[in-house]
Amino acid sequence: MTSQSTELPQNFEKKETRGRKRLLKRDDILKGALSIGLDNLTMKTLAEHLNVGTATLYQYFENRENLMMEAAEYSIKLLPFPDYRGQGWQELAIEYTQNVQRILKQHPSFIHSHPVTDYGYKIHFTLTEKILTDLVSCGLDAKQAIQVAHIITMASYGGAVEAIRQERLPIEGADIQSYIAGQFKEMDSNEFPILSENIEDFILSAEDKTNFLLKIALANIQSEFEKK
């Protein structure tokens, strides 16, 4: 059972303050940054969104980079990640992978960002510590939990990249399965004998590909744990 939503808050209420001074709180700025989206964030657009002058933002944050780092860290606190409810570590790993994959898909800049120059290492450490804590609660030791966390990370990033790629189809509203199947029908089947006989197994959604990889990886690591 997965959490109901992993999307960052998108629809914060914008308070109209024209004609009077507004005392901003730091949370107001961070929530405003998330509502705009970190991929498109500039100090100017955020100031317009909050109905304040750009100079006001610089009273709270030295520059855009500092704002981005703190907003990204703040976003982790708002995400309803799965909690340990007595489920096995494999089930929890799948839940985490699905959640992180959705977040990365929604915010592609998290995928190609550099932890030093963009959002900072703290957001990575914060998320990892949360995952490790829950995995240890499932009965894994710290080293085992870190191994599983690596699987979660790589599967999440790979799944998000594939999901983004599949959505960028030249035909609006088309799904990846029907689109690729249509493209393959135009090919000479004699050139692709193996694919021709197994095209349905080849055409998978990003979610199905991720689950396929997870099933193999988690089963293999379970075997390794049992040997020790």
TrEMBL record:
Record's keyword terms, sorted: DNA-binding, Transcription, Transcription regulation
Annotated Pfam families: TetR_C_1, TetR_N
Example of a GO biological process term: negative regulation of DNA-templated transcription
InterPro entries in the cross-refs: Homeodomain-like_sf, HTH_TetR, Repressor_TetR_C, Tet_transcr_reg_TetR-rel_C_sf
Ranges in a coiled coil: none
Segments of the chain annotated as binding DNA: 42-61
Domain HTH tetR-type as annotated: residue spans: 19-79
UniProt GO MF annotations: DNA binding
Protein name, as recorded: HTH tetR-type domain-containing protein
